[in-house]
Amino acid sequence: QIQLKESGGGSVQVGGSLRLSCVVTAFNFDNYCMGWFRQSPGKEREEVAGMDSGGRPRYAESVKGRFTIERDNAAKTLFLQMDALKPEDTATYYCAAYPNPWGTSTCSGPANDYNFWGHGTQVTVSS
Predict the structure, then answer these.
(1) CA-CA distance, 9 to 95, in Å (whole number)?
(2) Taking the alpha carbons of 30, 82, 8, 94 in that order, is the dihedral positive or negative?
(3) How far is the C-alpha of 68 from the C-alpha of 63, rounded, in Å?
(4) Strands across the sheet with 77-82, in order?
(5) Is the Cβ–Cβ distance between 84 and 71 less than 8 Å?
(6) 3-class DSSP assignment, residue 88
(7) 3-state class (DSSP) for residue 107
(8) Can you give 3-70 as a three-state secondary structure string?
(9) DSSP state of 105
(10) Beta strand pairing call for 10-13 and 121-126
(11) How far apart are CA 123 and CA 87, in angstroms?
(12) Which own/partner contact pairs does 101-109 have at CB distance under 8 Å and 24+ positions apart?
């Protein structure tokens, strides 16, 4: 069974950086599609960054050019590098996954496809 554990959140000033990590406990980590989501009070959970089956990243428009998603299959870890942080980036960030056991998924599905979630790590950006 897969388990996800986020870390790396914290409180930073505008323009600062944080690097989030998601350590995955799963024998078949390679067979899961992975992504990062965030949620702030009163808002829906949204995908911040994802990676398709070819390793190509995708980002929400609000974070393009500032965030970078990385996947290290050997280390079974997903990263989210966040630079030039803004107050609107304040949210709880979640690592998420869904199975892709045969490699047939493009890993570009909607949020509803994700059925495994970490407990979240808080990111607070203040001015």
Answers:
(1) 12
(2) negative
(3) 9
(4) 3-7, 18-25, 77-82, 67-72
(5) no
(6) helix
(7) coil
(8) EEEEECCEEEECCCCEEEEEEEECCCHHHEEEEEEEECCCCCCEEEEEECCCCCEEECCCCCCCEEEE
(9) -
(10) parallel
(11) 10
(12) 101/28, 101/31, 102/31, 103/31, 103/53, 105/33, 105/53, 106/52, 106/53, 107/33, 107/34, 107/50, 107/51, 107/52, 107/53, 108/50, 108/52, 108/53, 108/58, 109/33
Q: Decide if pLDDT at 72 tops 90.
A: yes
Per-residue model confidence as pLDDT tens digits over 75-118: 999 999 999 999 999 999 999 999 988 888 899 877 778 999 99
Q: Within a 10 A sphere around the Cβ of 32, how many other Cβ atoms? A: 24
Give me 45's structure tokens: 């959970």
